[in-house]
Amino acid sequence: MFIFSGFRDMDASATSATHIGPVMQETSEQPSDEAPRGSTSVKQRKRRRGGRASCGSVYLSSRGNSIRQHQGILQEGFIQYAMDKHHQTDNPDGIVNLGTSENKLCYDLLHKRLTKPDMLHVEPSLLQYADWTGHAFLREEVAKFLSHHCCSPKPLRADNVVVMNGCGSLFSCIAAVICDPKDAILIPTPFYGVITEDVHLYSDVKLFHVPLDCEVGIRIKHFHLTVEKLEAGLKKAKQEGWNIRALILMNPHNPLAELYTPKEMIAFLEFAKRNDLHAIVDEVYMLTVFDESVTFHSVLSIESLPDPQRTHVMWGMSKDFAMAGIRIGTLYTVNTDLVEALAQLGSFHGLPGTSQHQVAQLLRDRDWINNEFLPENRRRLKNAHSLLTRELRSLGIPFLDRPAALYVWADLRKYLNKSSFEEELSLWRCFLRHKVLLSCGQAFSCSTPGWFRIVFADQQPQLQLGMETAFPYVVSKNYF
């Protein structure tokens, strides 16, 4: 898997050797040293940095070399995209990015709000050291915001809020304080692949996969998560000698865009309680539900959690507020021991005081959020989703039709010459040669080859160009 420029949210990532569970041999394939025309090969880049492609650097520790060489199969794609980004006038033949989960639909709304005078505020306390869990004024606004939008039975407390520079930092720090090196965390697959690096690079914590199969049958949902599957996964992990410390759940899900019901979430949390597991619940897409007839139910809305001390809920600004570059992630937990441990790591992952002020001002502006931004954002997401899914239907490409998130999970299995992850990777590279970057299933540890995540949260010209540029070649199988 791949993190670009330090941002967790660069979704162009892939399965690496740090996962545990059913292994797909094809996923071990690394980017070819013979990169497509116009790109730089892995070996060339390493030589330019003074290192060696196959050996560790004498300047680094074993851990440093492991971190440096931790590369995913989609790194070559994102590097090519970064060097050849499409621009309507400056680079019209460049690569269109439908692979990275960013909302690019609302810059005009954000620019107008973020440039208002109340955002331009500086006072001494913002320039000095502060509480490493976040300034009190920001944690207060986060607690109020989550109380309202998560429909919590009681007002949430600011003392239970931890703020860091992104949810990736939170995943990393939580893993460090609830797990020992070589411990493992249970996670259903497919899942947002960069979590592997989040918990592994610093803390040497592993993810144990619970594969959700692409099932077929009447009233059977593809990639359906059940307690029975979690039980089977945990049993297998214990048989193999792994010490499982936690369960990671995502709602809405990435990459499936699945919304879990309160009944399902309570069942998953009860499973965690029975087995003394922490439940880390990622709700970073909670306000991206764009169908008015569908309601998202947060874990924080549950009247009585099965195990409050081991239930921890994450949320951030990247998805719901279309601000992936503003690195802010929040955690809500009533476990004071966890909060205190995270505070010790906060100095490595804090936010600038002025940024905290701006985020607090934004969250404080309920009128703008509820009457301007969220309704318009949902409308634009719905239109973009309709555009993409209409194109997929016209091409005869199946997909999971879900009313949330910034992407669809599309089934391109019929375009593989054979069912293998090597073929999936070949198809992904063909898209890239035709100037469209997608995310293939291997990036999410999908157990079935041929599924791709396609991001629709972009301006209409970009989205249409991406669909028209490469997909006709795929449908005709004229892509080699």
Automatic annotation (TrEMBL):
The keyword Flavoprotein does not apply. PROSITE patterns: AA_TRANSFER_CLASS_1. Gene3D superfamilies: Aspartate Aminotransferase, domain 1, Type I PLP-dependent aspartate aminotransferase-like (Major domain). Residues 97-458 form the Aminotransferase class I/classII large domain. Residues 15-57 are annotated as: Disordered. The keyword Thylakoid does not apply. Keywords: Pyridoxal phosphate. GO terms for biological process: amino acid metabolic process. GO terms for molecular function: pyridoxal phosphate binding; transaminase activity. It holds the Pfam family Aminotran_1_2. Belongs to the class-I pyridoxal-phosphate-dependent aminotransferase family. This is 1-aminocyclopropane-1-carboxylate synthase homolog (Arabidopsis)(non-functional). It comes from Poecilia latipinna (sailfin molly).
